[in-house]
Amino acid sequence: MNILKTLNTIAQCSQPSQGVTRLPFTKEHKQANKIITQWMKDAGMQVHLDAAGTLIGTYKSSNKNAKTLILGSHQDSVINAGRFDGIMGVLLPILAVKKLHQKKTKLPFHIECVAFADEEGVRFPTALMGPQVLAGTFKMKDIQFKDSKGISIQQALNNFGGNHRKLNQLKRSKKSIIGFVETHIEQGPVLEKHKLPVGVVTGISGITRYICTIKGKASHAGTTPMNLRKDALAGAAEIIYVLEKSSNNEEHHYHGGERPKYS
Asked: Which part of the chain has CATH 3.40.630.10?
């Protein structure tokens, strides 16, 4: 299989755009799932769509009571996305399983390759629906969220072949899972800077947002000395400077040992 050609082909499952625009529970999603299903079947897997719209390919162990290793990523995209985001992490584990299948390798555990339906949170004001359902953390009230056309997640999911009534049944027991591994393109400059082909993630950035109100005092620009001013913008600039400097001084354990320098 020519991997680049394969990814270029599935990239055509997209709304007209400069890049790839494939939103969950759409005709483009259905087209992509058809292709991914064939990838999975060619790798010797049994394929099904779960109630959350996650496409799952199962490569079973001869041990019926074995635990499961889950591999995969998301098939959906942001608007004008790159060709490799998400979908690369769907294809690569399928190819690994295909190699095992060709060699008739027997495993002591089951493998599931997954293509999550909605990771990006572009069509609806939520994200990570498939993973949250498997983890048992999905909030059922979110099923009523609507897209820009007034279509709810519930409606879109059910029309796609999912079933919102069965979402609570999909939670996986930690005792039955070995782990979850996702391969993904790096969306930053670190590997390229260090000329490395691959990296192993040991931690991720936690995203936190705050709303901060800085109150100042209006003064005459020409007659108020700087040391008597209470300029809200100047205060905000100092806060931004301190936060940025503090972030850049944090320890970063990148391969190569070089810490980012503040400039």
From this structure: 3-185
d(CA 8, CA 98): 20
User: Model confidence over 151-180: pLDDT tens digits?
Assistant: 999 999 999 999 999 999 999 999 999 999
Are the beta carbons of 114 and 55 closer than 8 angstroms?
yes
User: Whole-angstrom Cα distance, residue 155 to residue 147?
Assistant: 11
pTM of the predicted model as reported, rounded to 2 decimal places: 0.82
CATH class of 3-185: alpha beta
Beta bridge partners of residue 114, listed in sequence order: 56, 72
List the Cα angle 195/196/200 in 5-degree steps. 150
- The dihedral over CA atoms of 16, 18, 22, 28, expressed in degrees to the nearest 10, equals 30
Strands (E), 137-199: 177-181
Token digits for 109?
Answer: 């555990």
Shortest CA distance to 70 belongs to which of 171, 181, 157? 181
**Is there a contact between 129 and 118 (Cβ–Cβ < 8 Å)?**
yes
Whether 189 shows a pLDDT value over 60: the answer reads yes
Q: Dihedral of the CA atoms 182, 186, 188, 193 (nearest 10)? A: 130
Tokens of 69: 């290793």
